[in-house]
Amino acid sequence: MGVFLSGGAAANRIQELQMDPQGDTRVEITLENVESALYQLYFDPDMEHKNLAQKWLTHAQASTQAWQFCWALLSPDKLPEVQFFGASTLHTKISRHWSDLPSTEHENLRMQLLSNILHFSSGPKMLLTRLCVALASMALNLIPQAWSHPVADIVQAFQPHKLTREGAEASPDPHVHCLALLELLIVLPEEFQSSRLTQARRAQLRGALAGEWTSVCPMLCQLLQSQDSSTQVKEKVLRCLSSWVGLDVPLGESHELVQDCFAALSNAELFETAVETIVTTISQPDCHRYVEALLGLLPLVLGLHEQLKKAVQDGDMETSHGICRVCVAMGETHSRVLLEQVEHWQEYLALVNMILFCTGIPGYYPVNETTSSLTLTFWYTLQDDILSFEEEKQTVYLQVYRPVYFQLVEVLLQKSHYPSEEEFASWSSDDKEQFRIYRVDISDTLMYVYEMLGSELLSNLYDRLGRQLMDPQQASAWQDIEALLFGFQSIAETIDVNYSDVIPGLIGLIPRINISNVMLADTVMYTIGSLAEWLSDHPVMLGSMLPMVLQGLSKPELSVSSISTLKRICRECRPDLSPYAQNILAVSQDVLVKEIHKSSQCMWLMQALGFLLSALPAEEILGSLTSLISPHVQHLDSLAQQDPDATNKQPIIHILGMLSSLFTTLDINRQTDSFDGAEPTPPQAAHNPVIVVLQQVFTLIQTILNKWLHDSEVVEAVCGVFDKSVRTLLHDFGPMVAQLSEMLGQIYSTFPQSSALDLACQLVHIFAGEEQHVSAIKRLMEVLTAATLDIFQQGPREHPDIAESFMYLHAQILKRKPDWYLSDQIDVKTLFFCGIMSLKFPEAPTVKAAGLFFTQLLPRCKDGSLSDVLQQSGKILTEAILQAVGGGSPRSLTEHFADVLLSLNRCHPVLLSQWLTETLETPGFPSAHVTPEQKHNFSQQLLREQTNKRHMKELVKEFSLLCRGLQGSGHSEF
Question: Is the pTM of the predicted complex or chain greater than 0.85?
């Protein structure tokens, strides 16, 4: 057994590597040094030493000496780690440095590789695989010109009577040789799939390799059918077929081999691999062209039914799972083709029923079974294919398959059943979450099935629910009622059921349900929520539904379902909620004061109450609003008097968040949350109730800010209150503009934070065009700009959020009030440089904001002081963009730079042409990878594009790839 260098020699080599921190060429590349570096890499406990060795070994692999030392490392007396590095080096040299090897050496390399593969055919396994990968890589470099029939030659080389090149007789064990040959045939297509190749070369190789399948397939058939073949051999045959299928070898040429794979399903040791192979093979996209082959496989799939039933009966989840995968692969991939074979309709119907059996496998997912979820997408596919036929054919298929889909509904509802409360409590949180997701998938499937079964499905569910609730003879478990409601809710959630004649009956049945069980109560809540739109058209029924929702509101375990349902009702039915408003407010206030719900649910509840208050008569809103928030404002006041610490921070943020949520939806003008495109409206005669409340708590908010000014979360929460109010109230917020502008200026000057800039951006958007607010907002902009310019002068790198918000703010100003840039109070030149600095940030949002700033600014730089700034600094901007595109910024940001270049070219083509010429003529700029000719071509193409954003982005992207040396390397896609 070989050993590494002795401890002293290794230590000396380690010391040499340590003296060379870059891991470069100062240590001579010799066999002895390679081995000592490997010792350091594998056995030295010091991570720094390992990293140095790794760097040096990577350098050694790239050297020309590697072609020689790799063979020495494969010597039988070396340790496996050394041998493996030798084989890996061979693969690296062949795959990445092939052009370094003279063509006269190709034959010698091939024979050496084959010799070593034969030598190591009995292991170690990792080493054998790595040598096979190296030979596969060599074949890909030589096919088809220099090596026209690689598979035939390789098979010939592995004949037992062959001698190695050195003349020593090869291992006489044909079994070992066979395994090595199969390993090589497995890795050949895999190496093709993972190699970086041009599109043309990939197509050429794919065709050449697919042509070799005629040599591979008969041999695999023979090995799989032979009784003399070991399980190991058959397992590799199966893997070999999987590997070659990826080359799009025709099913028509492989169907006999695929049929043989089904026999392997009866062998427990081969079962998993056989399933994987069959599924991979029949899932290939072009299999549908080989109808006869598919029809030949269909009876084999159906023949698995008994094995499937026995596996389910025995609780053999692995077998039932595998057979289900085969069934679904056949049924889902080829549903349309098999539907069209009308003379075989009974066989396909049998397959569909087999898949239905898999859907209904007994047990609870994922605790007792994990198979049923595999089938759900099949039902989508089959339905889509049936409904895509012309009407006459569709009618025939519906007669056959509608009964199957009604059975499917029964099965899905059964599978959605909860276990007993005791059993469910014993499940892990992960199992409960997986079951929840599984029920969501079932819900989606039921919604889809409605398209095929229509109103008859709802009637079916309603009739069954009625019997469960009304028939005294029925001793119904709560799970049965819950499942039926779950089915209703799944459909009503996304389908317009307003015209269904069973909904009034359902509404009448719901109050009869005993909701003492939490899971059932949850589903009742969600079902009521799904019917909110129907209730808005039939408000007379609100009286029977709201008490149940409010009852659920007081239970912490129904927090999410009851609050989300109340929110939906308040949003959809608000014109009709006045009679119930005080009761809703009272119950809500009670649960908020008692802190029954988590913070996030409290926010939802406040949004619901915002919708509710919006619908009240104008004279009642302020009183109800004041009554609702008074306890929370009082609590906030007491918190504001305390010294800042961790215990009172979260309650402050929570209360401010509740106010924000309330003001998000409290809109007495019934406008949408979005203010984009909103037309200015005259101020209301009386102040909006929200404004009245904000004015009352303004001093309190200032007190909080004074104490928490250096805490960005609290400042963000404060700004959130005003931000949500501005977005909802729009021009009604006018009375607060002056106060808020002054406060924002003060807090930002003291401790700049991005949330203040974002809020200022909203004020500019809405009020910059209103004369009475111009002076206050303009003064605020000057204060914010001056304070932010100080940050940029000190170095903004630690504040990407501020840079981003600042750029968006000025983009908004340019859009709404560009004349402000003529003011002496705004240093446009410095602002221009701030934009350039922001473009250099690695954070995508900051670069995007800076790009927007320049695309707003550049069209306005045609005269006056803005023109002077562009003349002075435009070249620097152009240089910064080219540097970023050339490798200074992540490739994912190139589209933002392309936008700025397009704006420059659209508005200032002459200047851009001059700046491009001056910057690109610098040698090595923006990258040493691009030639002067490539830079000239890019410049000319860019200057010709003034309108098409997509084309400009493609130009810049291609130039960026060139600059990074990545074009054609396989990295061209983002």
Answer: no
